[in-house]
Specification:
single chain; 422 residues; mainly alpha; Citrate Synthase, domain 1; two-stranded antiparallel ribbon; 18 helices; 5% strand; binds carboxymethyl coenzyme *A; citrate synthase activity; EC 2.3.3.16; Citrate_synth-like_lrg_a-sub; Citrate_synthase_sf
């Protein structure tokens, strides 16, 4: 069978045959047929906007791999910092590389004092932590004028290091501000997740439970990248204009903020709280199916048409965390919802399964994080995914500034109507 596709323009009879490589054919074929002919593809459902060698996702079979390594193995055996190195560099670090990388990240965790005093302290008292996080990311870039030097690899590497190291600091600062607590400076003797937990919770003496530290690391690994999702696409689109990585990451974080994306973990806990009791689950499911209430948050995915492999790992991690914190009372409602939905033809026929957000919120809540911090917890590790894609984008000779075309459906040209004639 030839690995080609032939497109015929029936208006002109012109034909073009192009190769299909890995299931993809170039849209330039359409341009060759007729440069004024466009493909209508809202939400990029059928469009591969880039080549990427970072993350592999097979939604039908529930497969997720970073640089070829199955997510299950990375979650079981690796650490977030090791995974961050892998995503950025393509290979797992050896012992010396990991030591250097860990040292470098650990020594970039502090942020400029003016960032806290003048920016964070300037927010309204009840500002949402994710709103603070998004704006702080953009503001952070104003402290590093070398960030604009995106053609210089040394400068790019420096910004990547800064962003990965400083996002936990910004995140905890946003939380401490909203809770009215004094800011806790990074403790560079701690691990990456340990330092974050310490900055979040330390009031007087604080001893980190190693099981919670590990759970935090696993959650960071699971959220580190997910190929061309909405946030990463925002990073690539803004990055394609050669904006600095802080501004681009702020755009990516803004996309993540939405309830259909990273905001879903927050929406799940609010939904479970509203349901209130397992007896109310069947009625809630009927409401969802009837389109009266909200969607079943934490269910469904643009790409996964099977159980999200991250959800399986998170469900197990939830039990590890509950051993320390006690069971989250919302767990029973979540389990009942999952069981009910997975045996209901509405969800089965549409291939709607639990996604990464279905159980993560329960863990975060059990660990003491307020619901408003959930998306921030997603953004901390996703920063490395955004940066890995930004780096790949800048090195990709096929890429140019992103600029899709439109299907104009407005009125044709007409003359200005004077006020008296309207
Ligand atoms: N509850 C009820 N029905 C749903 C749901 C849901 N969660 N998700 C999809 N559907 C239905 C939808 O109504 C449609 O039905 P019909 O064909 O009768 O019109 C069908 O399933 C296909 O839905 P879609 O909206 O075309 O699917 P999509 O690929 O555009 O949407 C999604 C993907 C994730 C936005 C959607 O499944 C959703 O809104 N889920 C709830 C929010 C959520 O959990 N988001 C987190 C996603 S994973 C983490 C991340 O990416 O950040």
């Amino acid at each position: 069978m030839p690995e080609t596709i032939t497109i015929t323009d029936d208006r002109t009879g012109k034909q073009i045959t192009v190769p299909i490589t890995d299931g993809v054919f170039p849209a330039s074929a359409v341009r060759e047929l007729d440069p004024s002919l466009y493909i209508y593809d809202p939400a990029y459902m059928q469009t591969a906007a880039c080549k990427s060698s970072i993350t592999y996702l097979d939604g039908d079979n529930g497969v997720l791999r970073y640089r070829g390594y199955p997510i299950e193995q990375l979650a079981a055996k690796s650490t977030y910092l090791e995974v961050a190195y892998l995503l950025l560099n393509g290979e797992l670090p050896d012992a010396a590389q990991l030591a250097t990388w860990t040292y470098e990240v650990t020594n970039h965790t502090y942020i400029h004092e003016n960032m806290r005093k003048r920016f964070v302290d300037g927010f309204h008292y009840d500002a949402h932590p994710m709103g603070m996080f998004v704006s702080s990311l953009a503001a952070l870039g104003t402290f590093y004028n070398d960030a604009k030097d995106i053609d210089d690899k040394a400068s790019r590497d420096k910004q990547i290091l800064r962003l990965i190291a400083k996002t936990p600091t910004l995140a905890s600062m946003a939380y401490r501000f909203s809770a009215g607590l004094p800011f806790v400076y990074p403790d560079n003797d701690l691990s990456f997740p340990g330092n974050f937990l310490n900055m979040m919770w330390k009031v007087g003496e604080y001893n980190i439970d190693p099981r919670l530290e590990r759970a935090m690391d696993v959650l960071f690994i699971l959220h580190a990248d997910h190929e061309q999702n909405c946030g990463t696409t925002a990073m690539r689109i803004v990055g394609s204009s050669h904006a600095d990585p802080y501004t681009s990451a702020a755009a990516a974080a803004s996309a993540l903020y939405g309830p259909l994306h990273g905001g879903a973990n927050e929406a799940v806990v609010r939904m479970l709280t509203d349901i209130g009791h397992i007896d109310n689950v069947p009625a809630f499911i009927e409401e969802v199916k009837g389109g009266k209430g909200s969607r079943l948050m934490g269910f469904g995915h643009r790409v996964y048409k099977n159980y999200d492999p991250r959800a399986t790992i998170i469900k197990k991690t939830a039990y590890d965390v509950f051993e320390v914190t006690g069971k989250n009372p919302l767990l029973d409602i979540a389990l009942k919802l999952e069981e009910t939905a997975l045996s209901d033809p509405y969800f089965v026929d549409r291939k709607l399964y639990p996604n990464v957000d279905f159980y993560s919120g329960l863990i975060y809540q059990a660990m003491g994080f307020p619901v408003s911090m959930f998306t921030v917890l997603f953004a901390i590790p996703r920063t490395v995914g955004w940066l890995a894609h930004w780096q790949e984008l800048l090195g990709d000779k096929d890429q140019k500034i992103s600029r899709p075309r439109q299907w104009y459906t407005g009125v044709e040209a007409r003359d200005y109507t004077p006020m008296a004639g309207r």
